[in-house]
Amino acid sequence: MAAPPCCAVRVRGVGGGDGGCSGLVLSRRPALVLCHAAVFAPFLRAGPAAWARPAALPPAALRPRPRLSVVLGAEAGGLREFDARLLALVPCATFRRALERGLGRADRWRFGADGEAGTDPRALPWFAWLQVLGLDAPEGGWAALASAGSLRKGQALLACGSPFGDLCPELFLNTLSRGVVSNLAGEENALVLTDARCLPGTEGGAAFVPSPDGPRVVAVIATSFCWKGAEWVGLTLLCSLAAILRSSAGVLGEAGIVVPPVPAWVAAVAVPTSSGQDPWAGRRWDAAVLRGRVVFATEESSPFDVAVVELEESVPGFVPPCLADTFLPGEEVSVVGFGALGRVCGPSVTAGVLSAVVAVAGCPVMLQTTCAVHGGSSGGPLVSSRSGCLMGIVASNTRDTTVGATYPHLNFCIPITILKPLIARYRRTGDPDAFAGLNRVGEGVRATWQLQQHTGPPSKL
After folding, report:
1. Statement to judge: residues 311 and 247 lie in one domain
2. Which residue ranges traverse the bilayer (predicted)?
């Protein structure tokens, strides 16, 4: 990938309030940088109440006005810094509506760390337009853009930002992270959730999609750390760039800047993987309510938390998945589950690798992955990106009971090889006792799922 059109933004106050974030050089003629507005929170005349306003805020809304600059990499190495001036702080209306719908108050969403400026959820849909005269180039133009409306779950994304903002751009400027589109919400997919790993300070950075003529900017990082209740979600929240441009057209127009149209659809190209395959290509995510009856559920003493539900009616067009019979540590995998935004926006997709295969007496009894798994994901499928086969069923993520921390990227799945012969037996006999063996397992399997292989105090996990 060519050097991304990203930068770091420095905000320096007269009496304090210094801060920084990432930014996106969207145009070189006129020279415009877009960043997230939360970094301006300490300077708002009206205080945090300003975030509730429906209209854009002019530079006069800040007191005192901070000194602004942007930091970019130089072609010959090193850094370049240019003075900037604020044009306006602009709220993205469609993103705000998607946030209100997708991130309900009952779920107690939080963003960033407690006490940090900019963690107010009302600041999330606000973005800042900066003019940087030193970047103006006669041959310049707008960066290559793409509409989030054409995104689909499971599609590859590349995120670019500067961790910790302007703290140490010599080391962190424009670092890249690869992930997938985990979920989508709002008009024209105004809200995009991705499992690309982003850190504080990358807010205002960009997400790119591959296309035949090079990467195109599709969204802007709104927040990197998301918490749902006490659980760290491990996903990054993006705002559609097309939605920001629509909300900003009036403000930019007053400054004599014409916003270009964003292509409604861009032909995607595959991002190289070990397999070169996309298990979600052409996949539909239609919602449906299916009635069924529970024919078996494991006992509380069983290490496997499994229930078998038989549907009352067949599903038209359903194609049974192929079932994996081997597991290769390090292979690329995906998880689908109703964690995070699931109840509102359907299942989310996260990607990672099969990090470990735990066997007892030579038989796999536990699979571990680096996919982000959240509360509500249990029972979802673990799918191989190499073959598209079903590898297992998600059981849980990891929680440290001593400190209450949850680790979504360390999780456990029941191998499908354990369930495959039991399902086949039930289909032959119709007898629920076909699954009774899940309640009668050896001590080695029990110890594995108790996350404790040796005698002693109970595991803290």
Report:
1. no
2. none
**In angstroms, what CA-CA distances link 380 with 348, 383, 392, 436?**
10, 10, 9, 22
Asked if 218 and 75 sit in the same domain, the reply is yes
Cα distance between residue 373 and residue 49, in whole Å: 35
pTM to 2 decimals? 0.89
Same domain, 110 and 235: yes
Beta bridge partners of 420: none
Tell the residue number behind the tokens 């067009």, with chain if given: 317
**Average pLDDT across the chain, whole number:** 87
**Maximum alpha-carbon separation in the chain:** 78
pLDDT of 260-318, one tens digit each?
Answer: 988 876 555 444 444 455 666 656 666 678 899 999 999 999 999 999 999 999 888 88
pLDDT for 352-402, tens place per residue? 999 999 999 999 999 999 999 888 889 999 999 889 999 999 998 887 766
- The total of other beta-carbon atoms located within 10 Å of residue 360's CB is 16
Residues 331 and 412 in one domain: yes
The enclosing domain of 74 has a CATH number of 2.40.10.120
Contact 413, 396 (CB under 8 A): no
Dihedral sign of CA atoms 181, 223, 78, 167 in order: negative
Retrieve residue 193's tokens: 């959730």
- Tokens, residue 308: 């078998």
Q: What is the pLDDT of residue 271?
A: 44
Question: Could you list the residue range(s) of the whole structural domain that residue 308 is in?
Answer: 292-449
Contact status, residue 346 vs residue 285, Cβ threshold 8 Å: yes
Q: Indicate the number of domains in the chain.
A: 2
pLDDT of the residue at 104: 66
Q: Is 31 in the same domain as 163? A: yes
- The amino acid sitting at 157 is L
- Is residue 282 a contact partner of residue 400, using CB atoms and an 8 Å limit? no
Q: How far is CA 354 from CA 191, 341, 379, in A?
A: 28, 24, 17
CATH code of residue 375: 2.40.10.10
Of 6, 2, 61, 57, residue with least CA distance to 34? 6
